[in-house]
Write a structure and sequence with these properties.
The chain is α+β, with helices and mostly antiparallel strands. The protein has 18 helices and ten strands.
């Protein structure tokens, strides 16, 4: 088998074949590090000083900030050079998303523009469309928005009611409908709008802001990301010229769903960046706040929080860059929209995994950050309060976490049915293995435990498919449990393989995450297996689930304290770049 065709390099292939290497932040070259430093400086010097004003309604400040980002090249990263872009690897845009995460609503403005706003045009636009719009989007002269969601269709995007009808003279499509929750709507110049031609054929259109009939609702009053603009986009007999159809009539779903894959892994990266910022705020507060004559960072329950926060961030970060490394390798040397989209789509499962993982790591970290701050964490005078509010949207953006949990096993099952991934063969082999268990001591206990998590996923998913057939789609609780086991397996493996490069506190974080992943997996599996098996088979299956998640007790207190000490010493995330 050649290096290029190894199973672990295919999307989902790591379930069946352990990876030999993984890409990590320690593999960044100097150019990536320099762009990260530039982005960090831009956030600290340009955005953060204006953030409070933006939070209180001065949303127009986003526009000059986007122009400054354009001057720095931060809007041009994924745009081809011939249209004013830089055409850099995906790792660069991912690092920028991570570094901007601490800017709250502005990071949403930036992300909506560079990902879902610009990439549909990059990948599916005609030559004329690209030459007309991409240089403006690359420079920040124009800002982009993406109009998919409607008041009656969120997760079920294909149920959209916005309609497009060919005009009598055959020169325009006339659009009518309402789009909801549209980021950048208050100041965007170009909108990618999804509508159904004749009420049937789901299609994307490029609509300019000054087009007659295009109007906007008031700014939404949101819980968080207040520095971003979010409005309804209202289309009343909006005439869009034929040359502004994006892609093919009836093929809008290819644009919508492929671009969301990119948005998902970037959201995971942004969530990791936001979590690092929250950890930094919490560590500094824990060192400065004195109670009972000591800094609160010296107390065990605060150290427990700091240690756990850093550990989950480490696992999330490791999974993010492992995935982006695979995507960049798949895209290496490829040109053309179809080839690039195929490379990104190959890792759609992993993109959904890190979207769920990253957003939930962030949710955990900001919540514990508020708790560490105590009453001050509830005060708007402390930035952890805004971080808490801003974080919540990430579990809804880019497909809710519930939808992504269903997508993970669903996509894997479809690949197996197409013969792209031998999951069914692996599940059958596993059944025999579980009936005739061996008790040899593994050479590498931790990697063996990770493999057992993957086997547990195969067992749960296989039994569900066996029991319910095509009706398994209705067993959402079972599918979500299987997804959670697989998410933890991917995160634990990513953390473990990276920690072996780094040593030190990274190894403690990887051990801590893996131990808890084993415990969570057992709970999740035993919570749904009674729905899948009965009688004597049930006893065998329950025993197998316990055996696959068996581990020796670890001193988790000592591990968390060790990590917490490193966090306090670093005054934040303990792994330097």
């Amino acid at each position: 088998m050649t290096e290029e065709t190894k199973l672990w390099k295919k999307g989902g292939g790591w379930i069946l074949e352990p990876p030999e290497v993984v890409y990590t932040p320690e593999d960044f070259d100097e150019s990536v590090k320099e762009i990260a430093r530039t982005t960090r400086a831009f956030a600290e010097k340009e955005v953060l000083p204006l953030l409070e004003r933006m939070e209180h309604g001065e949303l127009e400040l986003n526009v000059p900030l986007m122009k400054k980002a354009g001057e720095l090249g931060l809007l041009a990263i994924e745009i081809p050079e011939e249209y004013g872009g830089l055409d850099l690897p995906k790792v660069v845009s991912t690092v920028v998303a991570e570094e901007l995460a601490g800017t709250g609503g502005f990071s949403v403005t930036y992300g909506a523009h560079t990902s879902i706003g610009t990439l549909p045009l990059v990948y599916f636009g005609t030559e004329e469309q690209k030459r007309k719009y991409l240089p403006r989007l690359a420079s920040g002269e124009w800002i982009a928005a993406y109009c998919l969601t409607e008041p009656g269709s969120g997760s079920d995007a294909l149920a959209a009611k916005t309609r497009a009808t060919l005009s009598e003279d055959g020169k325009h499509y006339v659009l009518n409908g309402v789009k909801q929750w549209i980021s950048n709507a208050g100041f965007a110049h170009l909108f990618t709008v999804f509508a159904k031609v004749d009420g049937e054929h789901f299609t994307a259109f490029l609509v300019e802001r000054d087009t007659p009939g295009l109007s906007f609702g008031p700014e939404e009053k949101k819980m968080g990301i207040k520095a971003s603009s979010t409005r309804q986009v209202i289309l009343e007999d909006v005439k869009v010229p034929l040359e502004n159809v994006l892609g093919e009539i009836g093929k809008g779903h290819k644009i919508a769903f492929n671009v969301l894959n990119v948005g998902r892994y970037k959201l995971g990266a942004g969530a990791v960046g936001g979590a690092k910022r929250a950890l930094e705020l919490s560590a500094r507060y824990a060192k400065a706040r004195v109670q009972f004559g000591r800094p609160i960072g010296e107390f065990g329950l605060i150290q427990e929080k700091l240690g756990e926060m850093a550990t989950r961030i480490f696992a999330g970060e490791s999974a993010v860059y492992r995935t982006v490394g695979l995507i960049d390798e798949a895209l290496s040397g490829k040109k053309g929209a179809e080839a690039v989209m195929a490379g990104v789509e190959e890792y759609a499962v992993e993109a959904s995994i890190i979207k769920v993982l990253g957003s939930e790591v962030l949710g955990y970290v900001v919540d514990e950050g508020v708790q560490i701050h105590g009453g001050y964490g509830y005060s708007q005078e402390y930035p952890i309060e805004r971080a808490y509010r801003d974080a919540r949207i990430n579990r809804i953006f880019e497909g809710t976490n519930e939808i992504n949990r269903l997508l993970i096993p669903g996509m894997l099952l479809r690949r197996a049915l197409k013969g792209q991934l031998p999951l069914f063969q692996a599940a059958m082999k596993l059944q025999k293995e579980l009936l005739e268990p061996t008790f040899e001591e593994p050479e590498d206990l931790e990697l063996h435990q990770v493999q057992n998590l993957k086997k547990l996923f195969l067992m749960v998913a296989g039994l569900a498919a066996q029991r319910y057939g095509q009706g398994v789609e209705e067993e959402q609780e079972v599918l979500a449990a299987a997804a959670d086991i697989l998410i933890d397996a991917y995160a634990a493996e990513s953390a473990l393989l990276r920690a072996r490069k780094l040593g030190g506190v990274a190894q403690s974080m990887a051990r801590l995450y893996l131990a808890q992943a084993m415990d969570r997996a057992q709970t999740r599996a035993l919570g749904v297996l009674p729905r899948l098996v009965e009688g004597d088979e049930a006893r065998v299956v329950y025993s197998a689930a316990r055996r696959l998640t068996k581990r020796e007790p670890l001193d988790l207190v000592a591990l968390r304290r060790e990590v917490a000490r490193a966090v306090l010493e670093a005054e934040g995330y303990p792994i330097a770049r």
